[in-house]
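Action item from last week, closing it out:
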Amino acid sequence: MLTTQERGVTDFYAPLKARGSAIEQRYRALTPRSIDAFRRAADVFPGGYTRDALIRDPHPTFIASAGGTRMTDIDGRVLTDFWFNATSLALGHAHPAVVAAIAAQVPRGTAYYAPTEIEVEHARALLPRIPGAARIRFTNSGSEAVMMALRFARAFTRRVEVVKFEGSYHGSYDDVSWSVSPKLAEVGAHDAPVAVAETAGLAGASGRVAVLPFNDPAVLRAYVEQHHASIAAILVEPMANRIGLLMPERAFLAEARALCDRFGIVLVFDEVIAFRVGYRGAAGEMGVTPDLTALGKIIGGGFAVGAVAGGAEILELSALHGGGRVTHAGTFNGNPVMSVAGRATMEALTPETFARLATLGEHARAGLAKAVHGLPLQITGAGSLFKVTATAKRIHDYRDAATADKRWESLCSLALLNEGFVLTPTLSGCISAVTTRDEVDALVAAFTRIVNG
């Protein structure tokens, strides 16, 4: 039998889910050309998708063009974007400074079998903003950046095992594709989580990956004290995306730093999304310095990019001299188009710009929090990022976030899309440098109407 509290939660989610067919029917009516495009996509892509992050029931919205905060879909609808290609477009779509930089570079060539001064300039601009970094290597994605960070850590320590945390997503690299979104029935005990495969095709985690609970310094300490001789790296998101764009407790990050110092382990921060939190990323905001930082998204100005940055002692393992070299190729690493776009973006992201982003992000979170007051919905996030989670539980770790009613979240997101607002199907969102207060207020008003039925 349900408790009174559980019955209240169930009753809250039920009305929106009861309107699910009507919400989906309206979406289909608004997007006939996207329906046709999705059918054609299924002829060439497995299941119609070539990128899992875009999966949405009953079908995705196909976009024709974008500028600033607005995207126009192939049915002619104008949508206000609150996700900006998975947070990667901090200046919004087709920002004039970025477009001008690209337009100047493209006639000179898009990629060469040679280095350029442009990539050096971009690297020199980035390094002072990355705590603890003296060297950097560009890659072509955040996944590759994480992969390279772990390769460096293993070479440096001559150990193998990587400690990651339940619910953390670090890209599609095999050694981190464990316990990203496991079912609660499969996760095991809190202090000894089971490493659950996120995808078919993995070779196994034993001896290579250990999974621990996020935000629990005591469990982390106990595990590292027992197994430190085999641990190469502790890999952590200083803002946990899939858990709810959640900033960890500083004590958790400080414990990870202290354990790495004590036992000669490499502390790796995955800041592919978190670097958006502040001028010096989440590490700068939290005051904890990693040994290596994996980057992506905003540093490329809208182009495919990744980077691993850190101290010279570790990164110089990829230099040409000496034995035990860490090799790293990549046809488009540091290509000039990405470099000019990324440099233009980072130049625009001044401390003052980040302050404005944080102020507007807090305004969004405050408005959403007011809308959900007394309801079984949680508002999390920091800086320019925000998330609505359909649970009555305060979110501290993955297992709290995993109690969310995903069907409710998906339908609420689809209802917002019907009203012209783009968030993820799990109701994550972000602010760009060109987002206005009026646009945030319009999103909050639409969300309030949907929640109130």
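Closing note: The chain has two domains: 4-82+350-451, 96-348.
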